[in-house]
Amino acid sequence: MAARRELTFLLADPERRLLRAIAARLPPWMTSDGLTVLGMVGALGTGVAYALSTLSAAWLWAASALLVVNWFGDSLDGTLARVRRAERPRYGYYLDHVVDAFSTAAIGAGIGLSPYVDLGVALAGVLAYLILSINIYLESQAFGVFRLGYSRIGPTEARIVLVAANIALALSGPGAAVAPVATGAAAALVVGMFVMVAVRIGRNLSQLARLEPPPPPPPPPPPSVYRRTAFTAASASTYPAPTSHSP
After folding, report:
1. Please, what is the angle between helix 59-83 and helix 155-172, to 10°?
2. Helix %, strand %, coil % of the chain (to 5)
3. Checking CA distances to 67, which of 77, 101, 188, 207 falls within 20 to 30 Å?
4. In 3D, which of 136, 93, 81 has the Cα closest to residue 2?
5. What is the pLDDT of residue 1?
6. CA-CA distances (angstroms) from residue 105 to 95, 100, 122, 125, 242?
7. 225 three-state secondary structure
């Protein structure tokens, strides 16, 4: 889209340099659409691996590896188009965000189907993430700036948090306290996401109200000596004014 990209999250600069270096070395047969498909496959595979962790915690290692696949495809597709000067801004904007929504739902559902996080908490996390994303898309139209992330946290940092959690759960082994602790941590994260988006929405509305203040109220109508109303009109027709007769 025409909105200016503004990347403020923690790993934005080193990630940008890494992605451009990778994109410059990809073979010609690798396309942006192919990378988008790869990222979607990585997200679906991550969700399946989380669900299969009910059978063995070893599937958490697979989920982590597939999150890397998801990052590779999702982060590199737009970079490859820009490096090759083959951008399709409207097509890429639409496709990227539709795929992101499905990827978020797939990963969140998989986490909820795992033995570690309650399904309701996981789906609340999906809802919070989608609201955060929708707010970013609306900001790009309202302010002309596409801020991919919130403060110092972006999609890459979120994946790193998931990978770190996977490693901790895989190494901790089964235990009665593992699921309550994981669910509690996930619930706290979800609450933080809702608070974060509420603060940002309030800030955006305040800024927009300053940019577009409400119009002043219209002035009151001028007072009139005689105002013809439906009642006076009816009275005039019922009781006509008397006429004078000359003798």
Report:
1. 160
2. 70, 5, 30
3. 188
4. 93
5. 47
6. 16, 9, 10, 9, 83
7. coil
Inter-residue contact 86 to 32 (CB < 8 Å): yes
The answer to whether 35 touches 95, Cβ cutoff 8 Å, is no
Distance (Å, whole) CA 129 – CA 193: 7
Whether residue 57 contacts residue 170, with contact meaning beta carbons closer than 8 Å, is answered with: yes
Q: Which parts of the chain have pLDDT scores under 50? A: 1, 246-247
Q: Which residue has the tokens 């978020």?
A: 104
Nearest to 154 by CA among 78, 74, 35, 98: 74
Q: Tell me how far apart the terminal alpha carbons of the chain are, to the nearest angstrom.
A: 90
Which three-class secondary structure state does DSSP give residue 6? strand
Encoded tokens for 231: 């009642």
Residue 224 bridge partners (DSSP): none
pLDDT for res 235: 54
Looking up tokens 């940092």 gives 157
Tell me how crowded residue 221 is: count the other CB atoms within 10 A of its CB.
Answer: 7
Burial (0-12, 13-18, 19+ Cβ within 10 Å), 67? buried
The Cα–Cα gap between 97 and 88 comes to 14
The dihedral built from the CA positions of residue 240, 242, 246 and 247, taken in this order, carries a sign that is positive
How far apart, in whole angstroms, are the C-alpha atoms of residue 246 and residue 174? 117
67, two tokens? 């999150």
**Residue at 42: amino acid letter:** G
